[in-house]
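Open question from group meeting: does this chain pack into something compact, or does most of it stay loose? Before anyone orders reagents, we agreed to write out a predicted structure and look at it together. Recording both the input and the output here so the notebook holds the full record.
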Amino acid sequence: MTKTAKHPAASSRRRGRYTYPPGMSRNLLWFALSRVRPRNPIILFEQLAAKYGPICHYKMGPQHIVFLNDAEYIYEILAAQNDNFTKERTVQRSKLLLGEGMITAEAADHKRQRRAAQPAFHRQRIGEYAEAIVSNAVRAREGWKHGARMDVAQEMMRLSLDNVASTLFSTELREDIVTVVEAINEIMRLYRYLVALPAIEVLLQVPATRLKGFTKAKRRLDEVVFRMIRRRRKHPGKGDLLDMLLASESDEQKLRDEVITIFLAGYETVANALTWTWYLLSQNPEAEQRLHREIDALGGRRLGMGDLKQLAYTEMVLAESMRLYPPAWAMGRKARQDFHLGEWFLPKGTTVLMSQWVTHRNARYYAEPLAFRPERFTAEAKAERARFSYFPFGAGPRQCIGESFAWMEAVLVLAANAQQWQFRLVEGHRVEPEPLITLRPRYGMMMEAERRR
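Structure tokens returned:
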């Protein structure tokens, strides 16, 4: 795919043999300190997209950065030229938590890990997980009380964590769920410092800093994961993802990295998607009523894998929710070699950033982009839209390996819970997205549970 039309904001700039897209002339280090100071980097990305359109260039210190808000450009980076790109600095920093897991690993290591995990996400295996997922959803809903106020974000975190543990790892983590959730919440709280601060590896060794909370939380998380691995070594034979990883990797630290990556990615994404979906349904009664009609048509019976075809609107609701509030809100790549992107010629080492949040709200692809309209995801509507204008699970060869699992889990959990319950946002509760590793609600999601009649 090629791109010829320019955004009217500015023209290209040439430096030596390279040509750069329009963008900020001042270095972003100065710009951020003097003008923007965003607690929320989404604000900066929205400003860049509004001013420069499909593509923008700026510098952060000596680093060249290109920000994309165009489906064709995104296709070039994530698919057509994928082999020329590695994960960028932010992902490299996440190794502090994830180690050399599937998200952070490159080249041969990534391919080996993906091959080892692939059978666990085969269509037939995913179908086998449905019963456990519905059981967990039913158990959760039976603990809710009419009129009770609760943080739906934390409730979905616990439920999604239970699902990943009981399906991919055949492990009951109920005795460890509080420990795991508290540890991950502490890690998320400190995430912005891990990304932004220089010499972070050194700072983490200093005991008298606020970062000591990260080290303690990571240690607590590791204890749970290592205990799970060692328990399975003594009692193998479940035939699940953990057995597959044990068969392909003997090094315990590498196993830890692979397990914790899939573990966290598997539950954070779905939990946040469900949280934002409950919020959007509470604000859009017509969509909520249509969802209930579809679910009620199944007769109130216990749901299963065979019901997914009858839950088409439920899936559209989730898709539209992840358009407006994508759990993975941004991603980036770093060029191994010089490369062309449309009419531009850029040097190796250039960081390329893309934001699902921004692209999913691009009026070129979605009319009235801030409106909640699940009908955008009928088969006909999707076929008419640029393919890479929607990529909540990434795209290309490194697209999320667990995407099919996540869709199945989210649809069944939403439907099973909505059979009996709906939620109303607590009056006065502040709703604001917080872009960390995933897009969490900054202040949680306090909602009142209403039992459906």
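Observations to bring back to the group:
The chain has one domain: 13-451.
The mean pLDDT is 87.
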